[in-house]
Design brief:
By secondary structure, this protein is mainly β. Helices cover 5% and strands 42% of the residues. The model has no long low-confidence stretch (mean pLDDT 92).
């Protein structure tokens, strides 16, 4: 085992879990193979990645991640009202359905159907975990120098 600490220029192998404050498990790989990522590669949200800085192989930790360090605060301006006619008529719209839209740059933008009222459909473009505090638990398996190309 090495004493290399997680930081820029490192590759990390870890087990993790994400849970809500009430204990609801959102994601976990403790019962599967560990995840591997290079610090800064975009695999983890920056706030989650920075929480790991200073940990080394063999360390276990748990972090209470505030929304601003994770999926952001719920933003009311990300809720849009659209006409039903703007949707494919073959699409069976229902509350909770995730629909893919294209933003101004043609990038995929998922939205969740929040309400349907006659010919009006309300779509929430906030991340489903926006506004939630998440418990981020990790067990660091290995820390090594990242391979640079």
């Amino acid at each position: 085992m090495t004493d290399l600490m997680i930081g820029p220029g490192t590759r990390v192998t870890l087990h993790f879990s994400l849970t809500l404050a009430d204990g609801t498990v959102l994601d976990s790989n403790f019962d599967r193979a560990p995840a591997v990522f290079d610090v800064g590669d975009g695999s983890l949200l920056p706030g989650y990645e920075q929480a790991l800085f200073g940990l080394k192989a063999g360390d276990e930790a748990s972090f209470d991640m505030k929304p601003e360090h994770g999926f952001g605060q719920h933003n009311p301006s990300n809720i849009q009202t659209m006409a039903r006619k703007d949707f494919d008529p073959a699409l069976a719209l229902e509350v909770g359905l995730v629909v893919s839209f294209a933003d101004a740059n043609r990038a995929e933008l998922p939205g969740v159907i929040a309400a349907i009222d006659g010919d009006t459909v309300t779509v929430d473009f906030n991340h489903p975990l926006a506004g939630h505090e998440i418990v981020f638990r990790v067990a660091i398996e290995a820390v090594e120098a990242a391979v640079t190309h």
